[in-house]
Amino acid sequence: MATIKIGDLTVGGRQKVLIAGPCAIESREQLLQIAREVKAQGAHILRGGAYKPRTSPHSFQGLGPQGLFYLKEAAEETGLLTVTEVMEPEELDLICKYTDIVQVGARNMFNYPLLRRIGRTDKAVLLKRSFMATVEEFLLASEYILKEGNHRVMLCERGIRTFDHITRNTLDLASVPLIKKMSGLPVIVDPSHGTGRSDIVIPMTLSALAAGADGIMVEVHPNPKKALSDGLQTLDFPRFKELSEDFSAMAKFLDGLDEQRTHRVSRESNLS
Amino acid sequence: MATIKIGDLTVGGRQKVLIAGPCAIESREQLLQIAREVKAQGAHILRGGAYKPRTSPHSFQGLGPQGLFYLKEAAEETGLLTVTEVMEPEELDLICKYTDIVQVGARNMFNYPLLRRIGRTDKAVLLKRSFMATVEEFLLASEYILKEGNHRVMLCERGIRTFDHITRNTLDLASVPLIKKMSGLPVIVDPSHGTGRSDIVIPMTLSALAAGADGIMVEVHPNPKKALSDGLQTLDFPRFKELSEDFSAMAKFLDGLDEQRTHRVSRESNLS
Amino acid sequence: MATIKIGDLTVGGRQKVLIAGPCAIESREQLLQIAREVKAQGAHILRGGAYKPRTSPHSFQGLGPQGLFYLKEAAEETGLLTVTEVMEPEELDLICKYTDIVQVGARNMFNYPLLRRIGRTDKAVLLKRSFMATVEEFLLASEYILKEGNHRVMLCERGIRTFDHITRNTLDLASVPLIKKMSGLPVIVDPSHGTGRSDIVIPMTLSALAAGADGIMVEVHPNPKKALSDGLQTLDFPRFKELSEDFSAMAKFLDGLDEQRTHRVSRESNLS
Amino acid sequence: MATIKIGDLTVGGRQKVLIAGPCAIESREQLLQIAREVKAQGAHILRGGAYKPRTSPHSFQGLGPQGLFYLKEAAEETGLLTVTEVMEPEELDLICKYTDIVQVGARNMFNYPLLRRIGRTDKAVLLKRSFMATVEEFLLASEYILKEGNHRVMLCERGIRTFDHITRNTLDLASVPLIKKMSGLPVIVDPSHGTGRSDIVIPMTLSALAAGADGIMVEVHPNPKKALSDGLQTLDFPRFKELSEDFSAMAKFLDGLDEQRTHRVSRESNLS
Lengths: 272, 272, 272, 272
What we know:
The structure is a homotetramer. Chain A is an alpha/beta fold. Chain A has helices at about 30-40, 65-80, 90-100, 110-120, 135-145, 175-185, 190-195, 200-210, 235-270; strands at about 5, 10, 15-20, 45, 80-85, 100-105, 125-130, 155, 185-190, 215-220. Chain A has one domain (about 5-270): TIM Barrel, CATH 3.20.20.70. Chain A has an 8-stranded parallel barrel, surrounded by 6 helices. Chain A has a two-stranded antiparallel ribbon with strand order 1-2. In chain A, helix 5 links the parallel strand 7 and strand 8. The radius of gyration of chain A is 18 Å and the shape is globular. Chain A starts with a strand and ends with a helix. Chains in contact: A-B, A-C, A-D, B-C, B-D, C-D.
C-alpha cells in the first residue's frame, strides 16, 4: 500500500485522516470560524470550495480567487492543510499556489484533459468518484494522473446514483476494500455527499472507517440552515464534535484490531 | 427500539447476532459439519435453504422438506436457532414446525399474499429487502406482516441493484441507520449477497456493525468451490473463524462506545 | 416467430393488438362504460384489475371475485377478450374460468411457484417484466411457464427502475427487438406504467410499435383524476380516441414497410 | 418549437435529419470513403471524432487536428455538414474553424466551464446527455450554453446507465417528447451508443423517430470489426443503406400523420 506525505501528514498509513470544512467558502469570517473549530476538534485538513460546479447556471458559483486567499489565510493561522476543487485547467496554477491538495470533483472524473494537466504537477490530488462511474472506470481515471508522473493520488468514494432517493447518493462502501486492493492508493470517504443527510453522517463515518477507509471528509458549518449550498448534509459544531470523538475512538480500535490480527497470524504460523 | 426474543436470544438489544450457514442445504453431512463449525465459532443462528428460488428453472431447486428435517436435526444437536426461506404459502406450516425463523427472500418482498400469511403466524420473520426496493417500499412491505398482528419482524439489508457489477449487488449501508430510525425494528445485514465476493465479506461485516446493524448473516461452506450455489460469496471455515473473531471485537468495541456516549451526554447535562 | 391464438385473435402476427381498460375495476358501471368505449375505438382486449398488488397495505386492494364477474359480463356484452392479474395460486382457477388471459404483474415475475402453476394450465399468459429484471432474467422467468408445457406466453415490457424519476419507470424499448429475437415470443408494451404520464403515452405507443412490439396495453378511465389508482398515467376517452387513430395508422404503415422490405430483399436476390 | 439553421439545413422542423459517420476518424481514406457512402444514402451531416475521450489512457485517443483537416476535406468534396466532439476549451477555436457543429460528449455534459465557452460562440451545438443525467440536469446543462447567448443548441439522447447490461446503455426514448415539450429545442437520438449493438440500430432508429425525434445519429464504417473504437455498435454499408431507406419511409409517414392530425383537429373544431 502506498502512503502519501502532505506536509507532516501521512495518508494511507496507520493514522486515519479527518478532512472537514464548509461546502463553499462564503466569507473570510465564515471560513476562519470553521477552521478554528475543526482544528480544535482534531481535523487535519480544511476543505472549502472556491469554484463551485452547480447543476444550474443560476445558482451561487463560488467566490473564485478570493476564496483561495481566505483558504491560505485560514491555513496559516490554524496550521491545517487545505484542499479545494479545480474545475478547469486555467485555475490550476493559482490553486496549486494557494492550497496543499487539488480536488477533482465527481462531475469532472471523466474530464481527461483536466486529469492529464494535474498529472503534470507534483501536487497531492483528491480524485472523487463520479456518481456514475464503475470502480473500474474510477481506477482508469486515476491512471490518467498517474501516467503523467504524479503518484500522489487519493481516491474518494462519495456515493453513486441509484433508484432510491431517500439518500442523495448511495454510499458504496464495498468499493473501499476493493479500491485499496486493486490500486494500492489511499481511500477517503465522503459521507456528507454520500448520504446528503446530516442525521446519518456519524454512523456512516464509523462504517467507512470499519470498511478500511484511510480518512473521512465531511461538511461543517456554524449554521447549516443558512449555508449557501448543501445545508441538509452539513454538520453543525456540536454534531461535528460528536463525530470527531467517535472518529478517534474507532480509529484507535481499528489500529488495535490490526495488531491483534498480526499476532493471530504469527501465532498460527508458530503453531504449524 | 423494539427487541425480539427468539428462544433465549434477544435481537435488537446490546448483543450483536451472528447468523451463518450454507446457501443451500445439500446433504445431512454437509449441514451437520457446518452447524458444528459455526456453533464452535460463536454463531447464534444457523441458516440454510431448503426451498431455493433460482433465476433459471434448470438450476438446483433445493432439497425441499428433507432439508427442513436436516435443519431440525442440526438445531437439536448444536443448540443453534434456525432460519430458512419460504417461497409459497403451502410450505409455511411445515417451515414453521421445523425452524425458528421464517425468511422472506429478496424476490418475494413484493409478494404481498405471502407476507399477509406470515403476518397471521407468531413466527419470528427475517424479511429481506428486494434488490430493487426503496427503503420506503421495504418498510411498507414489513407493514403487510405487522398489520396482521405479527410484530416479530427483523429487516435484512442485502444490497441493491445498480449499474456497477464489480460486486453482485451494492450494499446500501446507509439504509441501516435509516431503517432503524424509521421503523424501530432490528436490522440484519447480509454481506455475502450484498457483495457476492468472499474476499470483502469481513470488512463489510465490520462496516455493517459500525453502521448500527443488530447482526450479520453470512454464507459458510467447507468447500465453497463445490457449493451447489453462491460459491463465490461463501466463506470457508478458516475465513469464517477470522470473521467471528473480528465480529466479536467490533461488537465489544461498539458496546463500549455506546456507554461512552451515554456518559458524554450525562456529563454535558450536568455541566449545563 | 410464434403466434398465439386467443379466440379469433392472433397475437404475434401481422395484426397489432390493442389492450385497454382501467387499472382497477371499480364498479360494474365503470367497467361497462369503459368496455363499450374502448371497443368502439377498436381495442381487442379489455384489461382490468380485480386483485391489486399495492405497495402499501393501507391502499385499495381491488374488488376481488366480484371484479371478475363484471369482467365476464363486459366481455359478453362487447365481444372483447379479457385479461386480469393473478397474485396467488389460490385465485388461479377462478381467474381462468372468468377471463381469457392471465396476467402476471411486475412484482410477481420472480414468483416462481406461481409461474409453475400457470405453466400447468392451458391459458394464454401475459407475463410482465419486473422493474428490476434484466432481459435475461425476464426470459428465464418465462421458461418457468414454458417448461411446464404452456407455450401461450406473451411478454410485456413495462419499464425498468432507474435513477431518473421524471417518468415513473424508464421504458426500455430496445428490449422489444431483443426479446423477440431471443425468445420468438410476442411482445406487448405498456406505455402507461412505462412512463406514468398520460401526456406522453401516445408518442410512446407509436415508438413501441415502431420498435417492433406486437401490441400495446394502456390504461383508460372516463375520469382519470377520480381513478382509484394510477390516475396520472391514465387516458381519458378523447385522448384514447386519438391514440387509437394513431395506433391504426402506424400499424398500417409498418405492415406496408414489412412488405417493402420483402420486395427489396427479393429484388436484390434476383440481381445477384 | 425552435428550429436551427445550419447551412441550408433546418433542424427541428418538418425534415428529419440523418447524421452518420465513423466513431473515430482513423485516416483520410477511411473518412472519405464513409463520407461518400453516407452522402449517397441521403445523410445530411457527417460525424467523426478527432479528439476521443477514452475510459483508459492506454486506448487510441484520436488523430487530433489532423482529423479536423480530413473532416473539412470530406465536407468540401461531398457537401455534407460536419460535427465533431470538443473535449477542452483550447481546442474550441480550431474545431469551430473546421466544422459546422460542435459536439459536447456525454462525459462532458457536466463540464460547465466548457459549456460556458461554447455559449460564447455562435456555433451550432450538439449537446449529448450524460449517461447518468436526469432530464432536468440535461436541460439545466443546456442553459449554461443558452445563458451566454448561443441559442443554436440541439439535445442528443444517447442512453442512460442502468442495471441491465444486455445493451451498452438503456435508450430512454420517453425523454424525447419530454425534452421537446420542456425545452422547445430539437432532439437527436443516437441509437448506436444508446444500444451498443448494431443488430438493433434500425428498429431503434424507427422507434426514435416515432417518439418525435428530429433526427438520428449513427456510426458507420466499411468494416466495423476493424474499427478502432465502438465496432460492435457500428453499421456496415449494406446495413446503413437499409437504415436510410427505412428512415426515409418513416419520416414521410410521420409527416403525413402530422397533417392528418391537423385535419382531425380542424374538423372537430368545425363540428363543435
